[in-house]
Each structure stands twice: as C-alpha cells, then as structure tokens.
Design brief:
The structure is a homodimer.
Chain A lengths: L2 H18 L5 H8 L3 H11 L4 H14 L7 E6 L3 E7 L14 H16 L4 E10 L8 E12 L2 E10 L2 E12 L14
Antiparallel strand pairs in A: 1-2, 2-4, 3-6, 4-5, 5-6
Helix pairs in contact in A: 2-3
Chain A binds a DNA duplex through helix 1, helix 3 and helix 4.
Amino acid sequence: MTRTALKKQRHEYLLKKIKQNPFLLDEELAKACNVSVSTIRFDRAELGIAEYRERVKSAAQEGRMSTSPTSGEVLDINLFHDGISVLKTDDSMVFEGTDIVKGQYIYAFAENLALNVIDAKAALVKIANVKYVHEAHAGDRLIAKSEVMREKDNGFIVRVVIKANMNEVFRGKFSLIAADGKYSEEYNENNS
Amino acid sequence: MTRTALKKQRHEYLLKKIKQNPFLLDEELAKACNVSVSTIRFDRAELGIAEYRERVKSAAQEGRMSTSPTSGEVLDINLFHDGISVLKTDDSMVFEGTDIVKGQYIYAFAENLALNVIDAKAALVKIANVKYVHEAHAGDRLIAKSEVMREKDNGFIVRVVIKANMNEVFRGKFSLIAADGKYSEEYNENNS
DNA sequence: AATGATTTAGTACCTGATACTAATATTAAT
DNA sequence: ATTAATATTAGTATCAGGTACTAAATCATT
C-alpha cells in the first residue's frame, strides 16, 4: 500500500479513535499506528485535533454542561395532568457503527417526563410497558408528550408518546406510585 | 484574625470552591485568597486536593461515565440462550436526596443484557414490559440474568430478572428484532 | 526572647505538549 | 532514471502547570 493511502487510513483511524476516547496520548497513538510521535503530531495538526490536555479539558467541560444526560428539556408541565419535553439526540446515544439511537436513552427520556409530570421527587416507577415504534436517528429532535391517564390505588398511570419529525417513535405507559414522603433535607450550606 | 484562623477559613474556601469548579489554577486560587501560589500548594497538599490537570482529568472521566450507558459487566453469555451480568450501583444513579436508584439505570442495565444475549450489534428493542419489584439502593450490587424465551417472527423474546442481595428488584420482558449489522473495521496494522 | 506554626521564595525536575528546523525516505511525474 | 513533491523521523528550544524540596521570612504564643 502507498504511504499516501496509509496516511489516509491513519487519519480516519485517528479521527474515530480520538472521538470515542479523548484520553489518548500522542505516544500511545503513535504506538497504535506504528509510526513516530512526530507523525502523529503532524497528523493532528493537519486534522485540527487538539492536544491531549485540551481534549480532556473540553471533555470535562462538556460533561459539566449536561447536568442530567438524557433527561431532555421540559417545555411545559401541568402537574398531575400533562407535560412536554424535548431531547436533541446525538451520536453518543447510538449503537456503534450506526446512527440508530439506543432504546435506553429514549426510555430514560420518557421515564423522566413521566416522573416530572407527577412531581419527580415524589414518585417511583413500578411498571412500564413501552414500545419502540420506529427507529430514532442521531440528530433527531425528540418531542415527548405525557398525559396522566388515571389515578390508581396510591399511584398514577402516565402515558408518554415520543415523536421525531411528526412520526411516532415511542409509546409507553408507566405505572407510578408515590414514594413515602421521607425526604432527606437539602444540603446544608450554613457554616461559620 | 489570627493566621491560623485565616488558614482554616482558606481551607474551607478551597475545598468548596474547587469542588464546585475544578478548572481553577493555583495562580487564580492564590489571587482569590490573596496569598502566594506557594501557600496554595501547601494548602492543597494538606487537604489532599489534586493538581489542576488531575482534577480536570477526573472530571472528564466522571462526565464520561455518566454519559456512557450503565451497561454493567457481562459475566457469562451463551449467545441466543442466556447471559449474566453485574452492575455496582452508586449515588450518581439515585433520585436526588435519596439513595433509591432511578429506574432508567436499571432499565438500561437490563436492556443491555437483553441485547447482548442476542448479539448487541444486530438487534433492536421493539417492545419492553418491565416491572420494578423493589427499590434498589445505591451501593447495591445488581445481578441480572437473561433468558431467551422464544423466537418470534424475525425476533426474540428475552426475559431479564435483576436481583440485589438475593431479592428480586426488577423483572422485564423484551421483544427484540434483528437489525442489519454494519461493522466498523478496526485500524489495519498490516504494514511494513 | 524563644518556639513553633505559617507564609513566601527559589531551585531542579516532570509531562505532554508547541513551534520550528533539518534530514531522510518513498512515490509520482516527467 | 532523474527529479520534484510528499511523507516520515529526529532533534532542539520553549511552554504551562505543576511536584518535590529547601531555605528564609513572618507572625503568634508562651
């Protein structure tokens, strides 16, 4: 194989590998690619990939940004009645090698809204029946609507429907029960 | 105020400030506390606070942990038959102010095993019926067992049961269908 | 005044880089 | 086959943000 082709291959490898794991030193990359550290530095410069420390730093900042990773943003809530939230999907949520969003992210999004509409801190999921109607793809903007169907025993039945581009993607029914009002008080910041 | 008291105050400040924002250099901390950088270094040593780079690094790693799904560790897999995996829960998975693990983490754990037993890269969840039998608590070691119940149409029905301390915590039935698998090739090391 | 705790200063060294230069393959084009 | 362009390696000086250590200066207390 020509060096030019090897370089291209290496570049693809670097882009992919570093994206999925920013904690890779030039030295390690060099070893993995069987080239010198200098080559890796040239490659990074060509590809516009920042140095290790910057990568780690921005990874930390991103992590810092997303308080709860898959909860989405609540747009509207009528407590004990209904709620709407949105979630922008991205390729951190997909099956490796595809752009199909994993069910667990959609589930978490739905469960979260179901809990929020009941008053998150006071409810637990007991049973969930969920259906993934259509695949969701990375980049899709998911819109979840939840409705409290009825009260049952000491709990609630909440339905959540999620759509992407007007198409139904997910449909779930959550049976929630109130958790006993044993709340541990907020963090005490009073010190002298 | 005595120097000793000032020091104590500074120590409290450092612990709190660095906890809420790890991106603070010794130089910045020194300026904020109106002492020299040396003093800050002494303080950090006394308090066991790691240096800037280590703080940023572990922040990034934590962020990475929470964004990547909680899949647990697979202990045994008989493809298309059954599998076992474990997950150590922690307080990043709980409802705020409690030690009760959120359903979505348990769900993700279960879904993952269900997918793994079928060959993760080639299957999608279509329907899931899940029941949270008992609360799981932070620190619990969850053990999930999955069994393929039967093939159905072009898919599978997989049951997953999760226990903590011998007690059933979760029970779920997943209906999975095969998806066309697309492999991403590893970096080619054949060259010389 | 002497003792011990606290704070500051300074040195050598470390890692994982950047920025740059120079030399050496290897390939493609003429 | 020779040349020009491309790819790779090596080496130097420099940087940031430290560690680890030593020594001196500055209180506060007895």
